[in-house]
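User: Batch of two.

Assistant: Item 1 of 2:
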Amino acid sequence: MKKLTKKEIELHKETAKQLKKSEQRRYKAKVTNMYLKWDAQRARRVFWWFKQSVELWQHELRTWIDCSWFYSNCWPSKLEIKFPNLCKDIEDIVKNDISADNKLQSTTKFCRMSAREVRERLIKEKWYKEKDFQIRIISSVLNRQWYSLKKT
């Protein structure tokens, strides 16, 4: 196993940055295999590449099958996108229990209901299912709409 100098490490990093995605992955896998003997952990320490990524690149190199990650599926989307009427439904439920700031210095609307109560009423009155959302998700939706909730 050859010892890499700092210049060589920087050269390999810069070369990888200039390639397209699939070519970049193949190049990084070849560099890892050539200099670090298939050791993904060492590639993480030397080149600062993610260990799981290096393992995926090596798998691509061995099998000749391009694997692509769909990052859009990794993070949950906002609930308002999944249920377009949710904001209106929440407003209908909460409208009788809202009070404004006494000094009128903020846009925050104070709600005398908790997120748990809002969720239960959404399930009862608006025909949502229990598996559709959790209490903490309802709380974040209410926070995005500038509601300050009662603590439970």
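Item 2 of 2:
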Amino acid sequence: MKLETLFKCTLTGGTAALVLAVQIAGAQQKPVEPQARATPLASRPFPAELAAYKARLFELTEPGEKKYDARFAHQLQSLVAPQVAKNAKFLARLMSGPTDVGTYVVSGQRAYIYYGICQAHQCDNTTMDILFDPARNRMVGKLLDSCVATWLGQPAAAEMALLDQRHHATFPASVTTCAGEK
């Protein structure tokens, strides 16, 4: 029994050494330029003229907040108007959970600010992913409400793909939870 354990340890140690050698060799190669490795998921630094959008969603939509932006708040209200018409507390419920600051992403020829929010204690099945295009003053999104997906604001196919990619990266638990539900 001890010989078998020794063999497994030697095999595991050898594998670890091989992995380490490959990592060291890779680290010695010339790094790829940032432009070449950019993907639709790649966040970029905010341009100075858009720095105001580097905020949490509630900071931009609550009138008492320092970064409040009435135009942005109106866009969000318009985006979720059908859901608010059914339930006046919809947006408050959805925005009750954690949120991070917006991220600046570039996909194709378009630049967006991405926001991801989820309902408190329901981040595994109730989320909203938003893309805001400041150049066109346009907002689109994807709502996942109790695992039921709804596109918001008529996103184009490329925007749908970007929303899905950002959702998978931001809310991986909801992808797993909602996989079997329709």
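Residues 1-40 have pLDDT under 50 and may be disordered.
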